[in-house]
Amino acid sequence: MALAPAQDAFAQSLARHLPADTLRPAEPRYLEEPRGKWHGNAAWVALPRCTDDVATIIRACATARVGVIPYGGGTGLVAGQVKPDGPLPLILSLERMNKVLGVYPEENTLIAQAGAILADVQAAAADRNRLFPLSLASEGSARIGGLLGTNAGGVNVLRYGNARDLCLGLEAVLPDGQVHHGLKRLRKDNTGYDLRNLLIGAEGTLGVITAATLKLSPVPAAQGTAFLVVNDPAAALSLLSLARDHIGDGISAFELISGVGLDFLAEKLPDLRRPFPENPRWMVLIDLGLSLGQDPHTALENLFEAALAAGLVSDGLIAQSEAQRQDFWRVREDIPTANRMVGAIASHDISLPLGAVADFIATARERLKPLGPLRINCFGHLGDGNLHFNLFPPKGTARTAFLHLAEDGSRILHELVHATGGSISAEHGIGRLKASDLERYGDPAKLWAMRTIKTALDPLGIMNPGAVLRQTATT
Amino acid sequence: MALAPAQDAFAQSLARHLPADTLRPAEPRYLEEPRGKWHGNAAWVALPRCTDDVATIIRACATARVGVIPYGGGTGLVAGQVKPDGPLPLILSLERMNKVLGVYPEENTLIAQAGAILADVQAAAADRNRLFPLSLASEGSARIGGLLGTNAGGVNVLRYGNARDLCLGLEAVLPDGQVHHGLKRLRKDNTGYDLRNLLIGAEGTLGVITAATLKLSPVPAAQGTAFLVVNDPAAALSLLSLARDHIGDGISAFELISGVGLDFLAEKLPDLRRPFPENPRWMVLIDLGLSLGQDPHTALENLFEAALAAGLVSDGLIAQSEAQRQDFWRVREDIPTANRMVGAIASHDISLPLGAVADFIATARERLKPLGPLRINCFGHLGDGNLHFNLFPPKGTARTAFLHLAEDGSRILHELVHATGGSISAEHGIGRLKASDLERYGDPAKLWAMRTIKTALDPLGIMNPGAVLRQTATT
């Protein structure tokens, strides 16, 4: 049975069961996504103020069989938040449920509503001398519900894990409107199936996350950051191993940066201070957060000396001040900005077994050669085996002249990722962009289990229809 | 429809599809559990040598609608591995699938079959200078599949997480005999629902784990251990906070030990060297694992000085050698042994929000007083908020004279845990022992989701029937 559209009559009827101004016509901002490739189709947005209102909305959608798109900050990169076709869905934005409900510094926990913005959660933790370590480029607008729904990653996964690892409990509205009350502040709780982790990463297809208990960490007593020039990705991986031997758990981030990325920065953001007069072909940005009595500057110097002796690095810069640390990080964070200004033909968010990363980068380059003289910007969270492997037109040429290569390029790359035991979505999720890739590369038994669970928990198929799992023709 | 019993005819028919000697009559050891409170009922055990054989067995059980109990080391404490009544299940022991299939030190990963014994996995990691940090009393016999199936905890959860946090990928046979191939060696993989975490902690009720990719860690460069005498649990928690400020991530374990536990050791294991001439009322065992250039002895001395100055500790001992470190740990590890020799009336495996632990211990003692002069040994993984809160008869009295208080004692305690936002099973799981407690204290929406998932993935109800979720009268 097909879904019904969320048209005016439905919205007006639902509005009568909710406080004034909960339903509004959907402004254009709810229909856009950051890369501008997808355009959503929806007439109404619901803006609930509390969990009970969310439950009322979901129950009404179930009764009318109207699709619902849970909406956070709208920063997702796989079109999980925009549905371009089919019956109009209702957009359910959590933006008004944006409070930090409690901070428990002595337990290293914090409870936030799903609409809380990541930067606000970070600030609430910092106010009590604690760290909420999830950190990514869109932290000023991404919201906790969406970050959990997509199991977001970012730069600190190496040390602190991804969003999943930072969540201790959830409150959520299930597809029939039941409220799951699971906001426990426990480190250990082995009472039944892991519903929390099932909802995390389900991208709103199994329910709506309305609040979460999050895990905080001690603020490191001292931080240090360095750029280290490496010959190639293999040397970068050996450097990571060496750094672990030296510094153990103190490594917060270990990012690979390619010369192409630095060239893009020089081309598009020329005012940005680049670290080396000549752009090296490969470098690593390493970030340390150490405890009392440890000196990150000394640790980085010792690491640099050892890496130099081992022939792994040829040059390096250790940040001499917090301001310089921030400058170093700006370089990393502006690479996606420069990428967008140059204009990628195709972007990829892949992960690989660490031991396979160096060979993969070389092989992928070879396999892509027949497509023509594309520029490759390969960078990312090397410590996690997570690369953003993006294809660009040759310098001075128009992106449009090469767009026809996108499909072949992505296919070549994803086939190699699959053959290498990697993932075609390391941290961005599946959304609608990769739903058919998931069918192609996913484990058949896992896909069967996913479809079985989706049908069982959401038999009407109202929750974020078409995201993660494609719909059948009738819906 | 009721399950069919795994009788001789079924076993003989199944044996024809499997290599010789895969099916055997069930020896008594498969029908026992460590506390001797439950006795299993089964005639046959299957001992497959490979995943394909596991799939053959599960398919045959599905066809004949025979219940299957996935069996690891048999060390579980909640009767997940023994089914005392109903149609005879087939026991499916993974003990022959006990190999470490690969160690990848440069990636900090290891792949093991489900029947690999924890101590063997630890040793395989240590051989390559890596740490597999899962550590618990039964590590010499517990197997990886069971440890993951129950999401086991242990002494290093504070730093490294529980079994769930140490698993990157799974191979498993689903209830219809499909094999899920998910042995990826990836740190990040956001491709669909989290089937891995759904199988972990499901106690064999949603499928059989046959192999796992596990996460390794660097071996700490230096370790240090201390006993610190504290006035009460509140002081122990303040000490934990102070220790985190001083030592950050370097704290591997933080265990609370009560004077009652030390008295039991003195009574039942008098040859064991106790740390202090007079047993203190409360003490903490703290374990550090630090990286290169850090000295755990100095770190512990500094912590002790600071804690003394803050009035949190009154005495302390820092291990002066590795042998003394092992002696300190022996004290902790022999407490459950002494408990068993004294004979508990009722044992509990609870967790609480850290901020609520101290009040809980005091209140629980008050609430239990009306039952009579019971002795309480409250100890455990304080850093995780996980306490083992066990009730014993007064000294010199027979346990049997007090056993009638077990039910009331557990009820009083679990009601208080529930009211405090805690868990009635922190690390041991639900099994059959706590299935009715789960119904009483579990979140109704979560229970609905669990039953819905169980019915969808295992519609015949053959996987570990009656564990976690109670069966209906007909099965």
Description:
- Chains A, B: Residues 37-219 form the FAD-binding PCMH-type domain.
- Chains A, B: Keywords: FAD, Flavoprotein.
- The structure is a homodimer of 475-residue chains.
- With 475 residues, chain A is α+β, with helices and mostly antiparallel strands.
- Among the domains of chain A are: 100-218, 2-Layer Sandwich (Uridine Diphospho-n-acetylenolpyruvylglucosamine Reductase, domain 3), CATH 3.30.465.10; 221-340, Alpha-Beta Plaits, CATH 3.30.70; 343-427, Alpha-Beta Plaits.
- In chain A, 32% of the residues lie in helices and 20% in strands.
- Chain A has 14 helices and 18 strands.
- In chain A, the strands form 5 sheets. The first copy, chain A, has a 5-stranded antiparallel beta sheet. Chain A has a 4-stranded mixed beta sheet with strand order 1-2-4-3, covered by helices on one side.
- In chain A, helix 7 (233-247) packs across helix 9 (296-309) and helix 8 (259-268) crosses helix 10 (322-342).
- The first copy, chain A, is globular.
- At the A-B interface, strand 9, helix 6, helix 7 and helix 14 of A face strand 9, helix 6, helix 7 and helix 14 of B.
